[in-house]
Design a protein that fits this description.
Blueprint (H helix, E strand, L loop, with lengths): L5 E10 L2 H16 L6 E6 L3 E4 L16 E3 L6 E4 L3 E7 L9 H18 L5 E3 L2 E6 L6 E11 L2 E9 L19 E2 L11 H16 L2 E4 L2
Parallel strand pairs: 1-2, 1-12, 3-4, 9-11
Antiparallel strand pairs: 2-6, 3-5, 6-10, 7-8, 8-9, 9-10
Helix pairs in contact: 2-3
Length: about 220
């Protein structure tokens, strides 16, 4: 990767409280913007919770008492996070990348498609629907969510891949505002992938998707 930007790669064990994760991202984004820190990808899991993006509608929260709900500045609507779901928060500076948010989201999608393919899941885009999907017709289901925020052209928040989560918790919301479709996971598809397997696939496919190198960060 000589000559390419190198992005810090961080993986946190256990369950990271959502407010702690947001506070960390806020600090890191400011430091990246000001040149005090390198770009970063942060892999983690959260305790069970719902987040409401900037476009979330109240009638899409179907069971408000089920789990804690956090208002967040990312784009999108309601989503679920919890154990068994790999969240990847991506903090990249778009200024040297043309300040193109649409291209950035397409790169996130392409990254996830390649990573999931390595794990045996044939995921893809669907017109008019954010995230990554598997299956066709009535059998279509969402396997990964995307929700991003950009401040001063530095990205944060990111993606979430369903590995082995409790899918029943998605019943408390209209996931990402898309009704009429299911939510699935690698486990539900019969793919016996560990979180370490998912992490390895995400790491292996990230450099090509974004044209960078990576290095381990604590």
């Amino acid at each position: 990767m000589h000559g390419k930007t190198r992005v810090a790669w961080r993986t946190s064990p256990g369950l990271v409280p959502y407010p702690d994760a947001v506070a960390f991202m806020e600090r890191r984004v400011a430091d990246i913007r000001d040149g005090r820190a390198t770009e970063m990808v942060w892999l983690l899991e959260h305790p069970p919770l719902y987040t409401a993006g900037t476009s979330a509608r109240e009638d899409e929260l179907l069971d408000a008492a089920r789990l804690p709900v956090y208002r967040t500045g990312r784009g999108g609507r309601y989503t679920y996070h919890g154990p068994g779901q790999r969240v990847a928060y991506v903090m990249l500076d778009l200024r040297p990348r043309g300040c193109d948010v649409r291209a950035y989201v397409q790169s996130l999608e392409g990254w996830l498609i390649e990573a999931l393919a390595r794990l045996g899941a044939d995921a893809g885009r669907r017109s008019g629907r954010i995230g990554l999907w598997v299956g066709n017709g009535d059998a279509e289901a969402k396997i990964a969510a995307i929700g991003v925020r950009v401040r001063h052209w530095v990205t944060f928040h990111g993606v979430a891949v369903n590995v082995t989560p409790d899918l029943a918790h998605f019943a408390g919301i209209v996931p990402c505002g898309v009704a009429g479709f299911g939510v699935t996971s690698l486990a539900a598809l019969g793919i016996d992938a560990t979180m370490a397997d998912v992490d390895a696939a995400l790491r292996a496919t990230f450099p090509a998707a974004f044209g960078v190198g990576i290095f381990d960060s604590s």
